[in-house]
Design brief:
Length: about 475
């Protein structure tokens, strides 16, 4: 491999000749061979936006010459476009605060800007990573800004995926609205519910989880860019903070605000904690729904089997014909990962000390990784599972009519104790509640059948009028 020699404050190192990154990135590659995972694409884009916005602000303030500033802006545009992704080689587990990843960005943009100005890579007299690309900035205000902006950008995609899943669930809610089944509480028979109502509730859960994610985005929009090293704005122009955030909002097409307390945004990562917990809550809802899908489809002969999930692959290496609920299983595992990522993020968030929290790379990795896998899972779950679900109407109807808890509908007419006796006899004899109630002649047959209509039990309904003939047997008034 051909190399070029570069020098920093610690000495010299060979760097691959064709690399846009430089010596500080090379040191990080050597120092942190930890996971093999690289920065999320959205974090790279966010850094490109920040460097472009900073260059625009410094150019406008006359702190960077137009020729040099324009080259930095053009190089940053290439980072934003993803053209230089392969040059971001620092492991996600790295030096505290994200210094290594930040310098990776500065060096890539500097060397590409040098090239645009007809210079040779590594000739930092043309464009310097620290003195020009990073002018008026510090890792301590750039990295927290980048991880917040990256989260906002990726959360837009998470919300779009959640909307796809919500739509699929809502479609099944409408399709299954006529199908009666038994409800279950404590995993035991409960009063009837419609299959469509269950799926409608799942759709609502996605909508509510999305609302929480949007609220997290709003908190992430407050940025401390311009705080420099300790939140005081050292080495920045008095107008730089607001101007840089203004340009950042324009180039990223996001609603962003400059904080009124740069110390707060440097010390505290409350916004990242809220963002992480929003993803955790989404993950918890997905786990719950996926577990329901597994239960509802369990069988085929020894489970509930109220719905059929699409068959995607053989389910056993030894049992012929077995098909497993693989998408529901996958969804649960991804949800578990989101919960674990939230724990890691929470520990990182509380680890701040005085003016800075150096654990930000862990926050960025966990929040963005969680968002990425949840986004992909929701789309896949919708397309490969929810859209293809079919109902076992006969099984659902059987359970709706067999559930002991339909006796609860008799409470307003014969009282809880009498209804409980009917339910107990049903358990003992195996005879349906409706048949036992008819045999006991507590109410006339027409009224009783109307009271015990499972469909009527799936919506709020006023008590039926009881005739004078029936009042002597149970009208509670």
């Amino acid at each position: 491999m051909k190399t070029r020699q570069e020098k920093d404050s610690l000495g010299e190192r060979p760097v691959p000749a064709e690399a846009y990154y430089g010596i500080q990135t090379q040191r990080a590659v050597e120092n942190y061979p930890i996971s093999g995972a690289r920065a999320h694409a959205k974090l790279i884009r966010a850094m490109g936006y920040i460097k472009k916005a900073a260059a625009l602000a410094n150019k406008e303030l006359g702190l960077l010459g137009p020729r040099r500033a324009n080259a930095i802006i053009r190089a940053a545009d290439e980072v934003i476009a993803g053209k230089l992704d392969n040059e971001f080689v620092v492991d996600v587990y790295q030096a505290g605060a994200g210094v290594s990843f930040h310098m990776n960005t500065n060096e890539v943009i500097a060397n590409r800007a040098i090239e645009l100005l007809s210079g040779e890579r590594g000739d930092y007299s043309v464009v310097n990573p620290n003195d020009h690309v990073n002018f008026g900035q510090s890792t301590n205000d750039v990295f927290p800004t980048a991880m917040r902006l990256a989260s906002i950008l990726l959360f837009d995609e998470v919300l779009a995926a959640a909307a796809v899943l919500e739509k699929s669930l809502a479609s099944k809610s409408a399709e299954f609205d006529h199908i009666l089944k038994s409800g279950r509480t404590h995993m035991m028979d409960a009063v009837p519910v419609r299959l469509g109502q269950e799926f409608g509730a799942y759709a609502t859960a996605m909508r509510r989880a999305s609302t929480v994610i949007r609220q997290a985005q709003d908190l992430l929009r407050e940025l401390g860019l311009g705080g420099s090293a300790v939140g005081t704005g050292v080495n920045t122009h008095p107008r730089y903070q607001k101007l840089a955030v203004k340009h950042l909002a324009e180039v990223s097409r996001q609603k962003l605000t400059a904080t009124d307390d740069m110390r707060y945004t440097m010390q505290s990562n409350l916004a990242m904690s809220v963002a992480s917990s929003a993803l955790r809550n989404l993950g918890l809802e997905l786990i719950r729904i996926s577990n329901d899908l597994r239960l509802l489809s369990s069988g085929p002969n020894t489970g509930l089997q109220e719905i059929y999930l699409p068959a995607l692959q053989p389910g056993s290496s030894i049992m012929p014909g077995k098909v497993n609920p693989v998408m529901a299983e996958l969804t649960a595992m991804v949800g578990f990962q989101a919960v674990g990522a939230d724990v890691a993020t929470a520990l990182a968030v509380q680890a701040g000390q005085l003016e800075l929290n150096v654990m930000m790379p862990a926050m960025a990795w966990n929040v963005l990784h969680s968002a990425e896998i949840l986004k992909n899972t929701m789309r896949t779950l919708a397309e490969k599972c929810i859209d293809g679900i079919q109902a076992n109407e006969a099984r659902c109807r059987y359970y709706a009519e067999a559930t002991l808890s339909i006796a609860a509908a008799l409470n307003p007419y014969i009282g809880y104790a009498a209804a409980a006796e009917i339910a107990k006899e049903s358990v003992k004899s195996g005879r349906p509640v409706t048949k036992i109630a008819l045999d006991r002649k507590l109410l006339d047959e027409k009224l009783l059948r109307e009271i015990l209509d499972p469909r009527r039990m799936t919506e709020p309904s006023a008590p039926l009028k009881v005739s004078r003939k029936n009042k002597s047997t149970g009208d509670r008034r």
